[in-house]
Amino acid sequence: MSLTKWNIVGQAKFVGLQNFIDLFRDTNFTRSLVNTLYFMFLTVPALVIGGLLIAMLVDQSLKGRVVTRTLVFMPYVIMSTVVGVIWLWILDARFGILNYYLSFLGIRPIAWLSSVNWAMPAVAIATIWWTIGFNMILFLAGLQDIPNELKEAARIDGASSWQVFWSITFPLLSPTMIVVVMLTLINTFQVFAQVYVMTGGGPAMATLTVVQYMYVQSFQYYRLGYGSAIAYVVFIFLIAFILLERKLLKRSGDLN
Amino acid sequence: MNEKKKKRVVRALLYLFMIICIIVSFAPILWMSVSAFKPEGEILSYPPQWIPLHPTWSNFAYVLKNFNFARWTFNSVFAALMATIIVILIDSLAAFAFSKMKFRGSKTLYAIILSMLMVPIQVTIVPLYLMFADVNLLNTITALILPTTGNVTGVFILTNFFRSVPENLLDAAIVDGAGSFRIWWSIMLPLARPSISAVAIITFMSNWTNFLWPLISVSSDASRTLPVGIAQFFGGQSGVSGSAPQYGPAMAAALMATLPAIAIFLFLQRYFVKGVMMTGIKG
Amino acid sequence: MKFKLVMFFAFAILMVGVLSMAQPLQLVFWGGWTGPDGNVMRQLVTEYNGGHPDVHVTLTTMQWTPLFTKFLVSSRGGQSPNILAMHGPDIPEFASYGLLTPIGNVIEENGFKSSQFAPAAWSGTFYHGKQYAFPLDLHMNAIYYNKKLFRKAGITLPTGWITGKEFLNMAIKLTIDKNGKHPGEPGFDPNNITQYGIALYSLNWHGFLEWYELLRQQGYEFLNSSMNKVGYPLSAGQKAWSWLQDLFFKYHVAPIGANSPLQDFLIGKTAMLEDGPWEIPAMTAQKGLEWDTFPIPQVFKHKAVWGSGHVLTIPIHQDKKHMKAAENFVTWLVKHSDKWALSGNIPAYNSAREFARTLPGRTGFLESTPYETMLPRIPKESQVFSSASVSPIVVAGQNILMRNKDILPVMKWMNQQIDMIFTQ
């Protein structure tokens, strides 16, 4: 189907690789790809490192860790569009609470969603808030699989907490780490609903992502063949992520 | 002494971090809930008020009156529930076959099914759309249910579980004269309850929050789901008419769509966590 | 045991679900009115059903874009609605797909004359010389203004067309910084403005429409005569853009990057707003707001304002009986479109438009009616004049009106993108 020219009504017309050729010449598509990668750059490290830090926090024997775990995970059960709606309100340039509290730090009001520079970070913030709990739980499961005796033994040998983390926890956590990183990459690459609600891809295409572009081409411009071509590119990226994961997992399996 | 002091500082820092996590996670949800009860004049008050001066139900009334909210909720719940039931039935049957029966090509078939794990919905959405258009199922609840039932995560989780069921248990049942179907129904399913709960939650959630497919496949108000309905409150910046965001009603709708999910989550937390862990393990 | 019960229950739900999917047959009417206008139309439909026991019309509303997607898909499956509302400029796209029934001279047969309709609305129902729709209404841009703020600034309340210069002076008087100074005065601080003169759309496709009407005011068409390429002189385009851009960046009378101009106007942050009549219900609902309307300023030689209009089409895939019933319903609707004026839209039918005169705030729109100019009528309308975020016209508007980019390169880029869509 990606090899055809097709609006919903008529018959599909075979056009060979034309859609793919157009795609690579299409600066909007390149733009959407770059934007998506930028979005991943903003979210993936925060989601992975942040998720790990929070998991380590709630892994400690502290009071209130169950409450923390529950509350951090809670946003994850909220629908993506509701997440978008909530953050639209929080990020509202004039009446939003975020700008209000930032003003205490001496920061001038930011037009989060109508500024080319801030729109993507705004979507990223909402996404991090929404999904970090998921990563936390995965890391927590990984952490709890590490036998306590190992850590205890290291501590008795005089290792500092830092050393224990780097030489025991971290290596043993690497399979979980790989899984988390890959799932995060895969999910963030497909970002759509938050963008759809919060910015619609604008302003000036600053938040146009690949899946959003596919949606526009297929279902707003009725160019189904072209839309499928974009879907193929998405597919290739995701397969690449997954193959990378397999490879890394295998390697870490060999190490252990 | 010094060591002790240091420990205390570390602990204090940890608690600080914890408090930050709690505030950041919960404040937006709280703010949504508070805003939902604010009357029109108050919602845009600045500086922000965390306690509504004149709490009101009017935003909820507005949503229920002007939007088909009850219908969206019903559709969402119904579609998610149906999908979950179908998935559990199909996936557990498939998993049973893969784990306990030897048949020609079972390994290849299993590999093919597993590789489907990798295909994201975005890729299949256009062909899926045309398929549903051709059989005239767009804009029906069936359209909301069927595609999610192709989720094979459950097959994987349940196969792994069923493999751990000792063979002699099955042998005993066979001696008793039970057929495959009976074994699946009376032995395997009850045994797998925890795994099934996890699969149920994964499926339910993925259908419940699904956005792209319902957005595309369903456009009549009568078969719209909650996520798509809620998105309507904001046409996006590129909306045709520049209608103002009505934050009060939007927050009320958001709250109504969120509360059941949070309630279910708090109630079944254990299974949620388990479900998430199992999704993670699949890689 | 309990577990089995649950499973049986599950089966039961499954069966009920499968059985409950049957739907009865009716005269189906689709429209994209999702706001208060939808409620007005629903009341009209209810009224019709009450007086015509042999027919039952069911109105389904959803946003326009998904509505059209749905229409295309259901037509593919041979199941169009019996009546479909759209805008005049949408007709060429669907007519060229062969999805609309040319209505011939049905309108005349039902006792109407073309002279009984606003000319812009009447001509908006044709494509390639064939009539495809019944004209229902017109809706165009006009300026809403806040009476209290006007009185406070000592400005006489405008009623008719004013020039660009008059408008600008007004907007400057209505823009106040926190020290009470106006733009152009020494010591005016553009970073601390407490009240703006005018709220203009710059984030969505209305930015482009604000420009389009200024291009038309200079007497130029957007496309060439064969409607397959951009065809306006760049200099005229530049004049129009820079007039708008200056309102934001030179005179500081319009807030930059405002994400909700309507909201700004409703709460009195801006004294004027350029928008269409679909906002009238929102104005009426705002407590304490005293408002009225006047036409957009005449900046150039001619009077012209962007507008569009709802029309009612009768899609293919239906038998004679349904078609006749649909025609009867639409005829009735046009005759009773005075009530439709309550939605804010300006009825296309002259006698119904007279009723709109009695309603508050319609002045600006009624004054504008003879000068309304619609977008060019082309089959590729949904791509060329798309309101999606990637649409060249949307991006160009954002770049010029929000990011203060150089006009000429942006305009050239927009033209080239649109020409590309035409060649695809």
In summary, what is this structure?
Helix content of chain B is 72%, strand content 0%. With 283 residues, chain B is mostly helical.
- Specify the CATH architecture of the largest domain in chain C: 3-Layer(aba) Sandwich
Taken in chain order, the helices and strands of chain B follow as HHHHHHHHHHHHHHH
Beta-strand portion of chain B reads: under 5%
CATH topology descriptor of the largest domain in chain C: D-Maltodextrin-Binding Protein, domain 2
Count every helix of chain B, treating DSSP H or I runs of 4 or more residues as helices.
15
Major β-sheet annotation of chain B: none
* Strand arrangement across the biggest beta sheet of chain C: 2-1-3-14-6
Helix percent band of chain B: over 70%
Q: How many DSSP H or I helices of chain C? A: 19
Radius of gyration of chain B: 24 Å
> How is the main sheet of chain C built?
5 strands, mixed
CATH architecture of the largest domain in chain B: Orthogonal Bundle
Describe the model.
- The complex is a heterotrimer of chains A (256), B (283) and C (424).
- In chain A, helix 4 crosses helix 6 and helix 6 crosses helix 8 (161-189).
- Chain A has a single domain (4-255), classed as MetI-like fold (Orthogonal Bundle).
- Chain A is mainly α and 256 residues long.
- Chain A is globular and about 75 Å long.
- Chain A contains eleven helices and two strands.
- The longest helix of chain A is centred in the N-terminal third of the chain and has 33 residues, at 27-59.
- Chain A is 71% helix and 2% strand.
- With 283 residues, chain B is mainly alpha-helical.
- Chain B has two domains: 2-60, no CATH class; 68-281, Orthogonal Bundle (MetI-like fold), CATH 1.10.3720.10.
- In chain B, helix 4 packs across helix 11 (193-209) and helix 11 (193-209) packs across helix 15 (269-281).
- The longest helix of chain B has 35 residues, at 2-36.
- Chain B is globular.
- The two termini of chain B are 47 Å apart.
- With 424 residues, chain C is of the alpha/beta class.
- Chain C has two domains: 25-136 and 309-365, D-Maltodextrin-Binding Protein, domain 2, CATH 3.40.190.10; 142-307 and 388-423, Periplasmic binding protein-like II (D-Maltodextrin-Binding Protein, domain 2).
- Chain C has a five-stranded mixed sheet with strand order 2-1-3-14-6, with helices on one face. A five-stranded mixed sheet of chain C has the order 9-10-11-8-12.
- Chain C is globular and about 75 Å long.
- Chain C starts with a helix and ends with a helix.
- Mean pLDDT of chain C is 90; it is low at 20-25.
- Chains A and B meet through helix 2, helix 3, helix 4, helix 6 and helix 8 of A and helix 1, helix 6, helix 11, helix 12 and helix 13 of B.
